[in-house]
Design a protein that fits this description.
292 residues; mainly alpha; two-stranded antiparallel sheet; 2 strands; respiratory chain; iron; cell inner membrane
């Protein structure tokens, strides 16, 4: 490689070279396009003007405010503060209004639905799913099966205090572990599971004494689930004739639940979310399609 620094006129292009040559390749001294140069100069002038007019240069503890004193950051913060103030006003109205008034007032309903949808995605979707259709162990909020009731007030109360959450007002409905605590034998558990399953539309297992299962049910289960198997919301006992079961609808899943009951937990959202958000969630969940 050589660098001769000898300028000459290129024979092919007729352009003067810069005098630089690398491995036989000579650099032509073509000038930059004028439009490109003018745009570069204009950008430099614009940048200098921007530095003068708008906040730009950092100082020791602040920054240069510029001739106009305008700041996009300050504008964004002002817009945020205005939005939060407006939100606080509507939130105050939401707190002071009853759930029925929220449903019947268009402006409050629109705010509650939007606020509830956002809060649901942030706090509830992890368990109940983004579409609120639930999963094994997590209720489907779009159907009409409610353990504790599906009215606006019922849903609001459940959201406020939770289920087995440790809150003083929490909903508590603990089912005994009939097998783990040796309250029933394995045979009795299998009998009562088949009896309940047969009443709920499942095919009972062969060789099971359903009459004995009925006796076990009456003696141990009817006090909470009712003699008609339709449950009691007052104590959180599910309707055993429902289409779906929280932990799966099969003879084996019923046996598992009776043997060692699974008692799910829902947080008390009143300790985590502001009252207006809890009300918004109640209105939103009620409107999903299963509200009573």
């Amino acid at each position: 490689m050589a660098d001769t620094h000898t300028k000459e006129i290129d024979e092919i292009s007729g352009v003067e070279t810069t005098g630089h040559e690398w491995d036989g390749l000579k650099e032509l001294n073509n000038p930059l396009p004028r439009w490109w140069l003018y745009m570069t100069y204009a950008c430099i002038v614009w940048a200098i003007g921007y530095w003068i007019v708008y906040p730009s240069w950092p100082l020791v503890s602040s920054y240069a405010t510029g001739v106009l004193g305008d700041s996009q950051r300050a504008n964004a913060l002002a817009a945020y503060d205005a939005g939060m103030a407006e939100r606080a006003q509507i939130g105050e109205k939401l707190i002071n209004a009853s759930l029925e008034e929220i449903q019947s007032t268009q402006s409050l309903l629109e705010f509650a639905m939007a606020n509830g949808k956002a809060a649901f995605g942030d706090n509830c979707a992890a368990c109940h799913g983004s579409g609120a259709t639930g999963a094994i162990g997590y209720p489907n909020l779009q159907d009409d099966q409610w353990i504790w009731g599906g009215t606006l007030d019922d849903i609001h109360t459940t959201l406020q205090y939770g289920i087995r959450s440790g809150h003083d007002e929490a909903r508590i409905g603990d089912m005994p572990a009939f097998g783990a605590d040796e309250l029933l034998s394995k045979e009795e558990i299998r009998q009562v599971a088949n009896y309940v399953g047969e009443k709920a539309g499942l095919e009972p297992e062969e060789g099971i004494d359903l009459a004995a299962g009925e006796t076990v049910y009456v003696d141990n289960c009817a006090a909470c689930h009712g003699e008609d198997l339709k449950g009691m919301r007052e104590v959180g006992a599910p309707n055993l004739l429902a289409r779906n079961y929280l932990y799966g609808k099969s003879i084996d899943s019923i046996v598992a639940q009776v043997t060692d009951s699974r008692n799910g937990v829902m947080p008390a959202w009143s300790t985590r979310l502001e009252p207006a958000t809890v009300k918004s969630l109640a209105v939103y969940v009620h409107a999903l399609g299963g509200g009573e």
